Amino acid sequence: MSRFDILRTGRAAPSGQPSTSKTVQHRDAEPNPSAAALADKFGGAVKRREVIWGETTVYVDPARVHEIISWLHDDSSQQYDFLSDVTAVEYRDPEVPVEVVWHLRSLPYRRFLRLKVQLPKGQPMEVASVYDIYKSADWLERECYDMFGIQFRGHPDLRRILMWESYKEGFPLRKDFPLRGRFSRSEQLRQSLAQNPEARYSMEELTIADAFAELPEDMKKRLAKGERTGE
Amino acid sequence: MAKRTVEVELSTTGLDAQGRPQRVPILTDDGGGGLALQAPPALEPELEGEHMLINIGPQHPATHGVLRLVLELDGETVVRCIPHIGYLHCGFEKIGEYRQYNQIIPWTDREDYLNSIGNNVAFALGAERLFGIEITERCTVLRVIASELSRIMSHLVWLGTFCIDIGAFTPFLWAFQRREEIYRLLEKWIGARLTTSATRVGGMAADIPSGWMDGLRQFVRTFPQTLDEIDRVLTRNAIWVGRTVGLGVMSPEEAINWGLSGPMLRASGVDYDVRKDFPYLDYETYDFDVPVGTNGDVYDRYLVRFEELRQSNRILAQAADRLPDGPVNIDDPRIILPPKSKATSEMESMIHHFKVVMEGPRPPIGESYFAVESPKGEKGYYMVSDGTAKPVRWRIRPPSFVNLAAIPKMVEGHLLSDVIAINASIDIVMGEIDR
């Protein structure tokens, strides 16, 4: 085969291939076999399972979620090697706990599993990071922290990603956050005008190449006092 | 007049370690004027060990939007790359919690704006799973046509801009010429070119007009010629190959672990395609191949996307042949608007119209994560409903966001000029990354 050719896989749906699911039941469809395997293996750490619209959701103990995802990733009968998404859900009812959701895929077995933990209100929202299992969790967890304020324990670089680092209004996707932001328009404008347009680097970046030494004097003073740069 | 030549005697201090003559800068002598051709005592200060901080973007044409990359360079080699995103953050997911399902569809146009009609289809499919709706045969085929046209459009923009980033201008014009034809087709169908908002929960905004299929068949027939032309100037072009082979290599295991999807993942040799592995819209009944690369470098990503253009064209040809007659929208007045003529003449339809517009269709309590194969990769819409007309949570799983997260891994150790090629090969759209 020449270097200019690509391997072509003509997988034109012979029998045994998955097909488009036509009529899906709202509840009580066939669950993903991994849900039963999880209940066998982890017992009490698996709280309950639900099948909604053909997708299996497993609710697990927040303290053991890292262990469970690690097992799903490594066990040869599961092989959930692809982390699709990490996100969180907060319900409109303030009594209902916030949920952190992992969408896992097993590419070899063509399985899809939703894993959830419930974090009660009024307690610090913290859960283990899965960055050491899936590198893709890096930005997904940062976004989840940025939007919901959920602390991922063990994440190497948990800082805001979509909002700027000096953003002070809180966590935008929380239900107590108003649609137009916490501050008034005039306050938002005042804060953005007060930003230092020169300060475009984080302290971490300024350690590169002694860039700190080349900054103007007033910026050096401000940074030395512990003030964050603009972004 | 005789030609006058000036002879300047050049002196050199000798040869350097590689055997090349050492360069001697020409210095202006302050004292007597003229040129003093003396070698300075030290030619260049010792630069080894000093790193440089380089900032690319956010306003830079090669970053494909408002991406900012902070690079630490050792000479021309990238030692570290720190990406910054969020300059285009609009809070789509927050706004979606205040909108009915059909009102979210215009927002899906604006996230991955190169694939707007494909996003409309993906969102509608996700919402329909949440509602428990089964769409009609004709609608299914129309949505396949929409998705594949959208894939071709997105890949053509990627191809054109990738060429420009690397320095080839002509294929850009060829690609955009064909993209314009698709835009004309969409304009005839939907009335809009870029922000299509083509779907509704349970159907489409409009059926195709008469004669539209002839335009599509014309496109499908002539499109491979353009592909052949681009193939001829690029695929075996020495400059192209030299600028792309061996860059940003991701092994299959790394690519899966970093969550890459779409052509990025397939270029690394993993044959994961949502259309084949978790089919929707009856994709399993279409005959098409999934191109898979072997090396996982920028060149393989080019080959994979290029072949996908041909395969999408094949799907379009099959879809055009099998389009059945019949209704486009489902027959459920609680979800689908009645025709305008009926809404203004019949009491029953007017009430349905009022209810659908003012209150909006209500799904049962539940949640769904619906993933489609967008041109960028696995695009998922995760929706949670509490039984009201507005979702509790509307989450976009953006493929470019996850693909871009691997850029530090891909560029580190490569040259500064290769950062541009690697970044272009990811095929990012900042509207989707920042949302």
Could you please describe the fold and organization of this structure?
The complex is a heterodimer of chains A (231) and B (435). Chain A has 231 residues and is of the alpha/beta class. Chain A has helices spanning 33-42, 65-74, 137-148, 185-194, 203-206, 217-224, and strands at residues 7-9, 46-52, 55-60, 82-89, 98-106, 111-119, 126-128, 151-153. In chain A, strand 4 and strand 5 form a beta hairpin. The N and C termini of chain A lie far apart (50 Å). By secondary structure, chain B is of the alpha+beta class. In chain B, strands 3-4-5 form a 3-stranded antiparallel β-sheet. In chain B, strands 9-10-11 form a 3-stranded antiparallel β-sheet. In chain B, strands 1-2 form a two-stranded antiparallel ribbon. The longest helix of chain B is centred in the middle third of the chain and has 30 residues, at 137-166. Chain B starts with 26 loop residues before the first strand and ends with a helix. Mean pLDDT of chain B is 86; it is low at 5-11, 25-30 and 32-40. At the A-B interface, strand 1, strand 4, helix 3 and helix 5 of A face strand 3, strand 5, helix 1, helix 8 and strand 8 of B. Strand 1 of chain A pairs antiparallel with strand 8 of chain B.
Strand content of chain B: 5-15%
What is the terminal-to-terminal distance of chain B?
A: 71 Å
Measured on Cα atoms, how large is the radius of gyration of chain A?
Answer: 23 Å
CATH class group of the domain at 97-330 and 368-403 and 417-430 in chain B: Mainly Alpha
CATH architecture of the domain at 33-161 in chain A: 2-Layer Sandwich
Radius of gyration of chain B: 28 Å
Mean pLDDT of chain B: 86
CATH superfamily of the domain at 33-161 in chain A: NADH:ubiquinone oxidoreductase Nqo5 subunit
Number of helices of chain B: 17
Oligomer: heterodimer
CATH level 4 superfamily of the domain at 97-330 and 368-403 and 417-430 in chain B: Cytochrome-c3 Hydrogenase, chain B
Number of strands of chain A: 8
Distance between the termini of chain A: 50 Å
Helix share of residues of chain A?
A: 10-25%
Count up the helices of chain A. Answer: 6
Sketch the major β-sheet of chain A: 5 strands, mixed
In CATH, the topology of the domain at 97-330 and 368-403 and 417-430 in chain B is named Cytochrome-c3 Hydrogenase, chain B
Arithmetic mean of pLDDT of chain A = 81
Q: What strand order characterises the main sheet of chain B?
A: 3-4-5
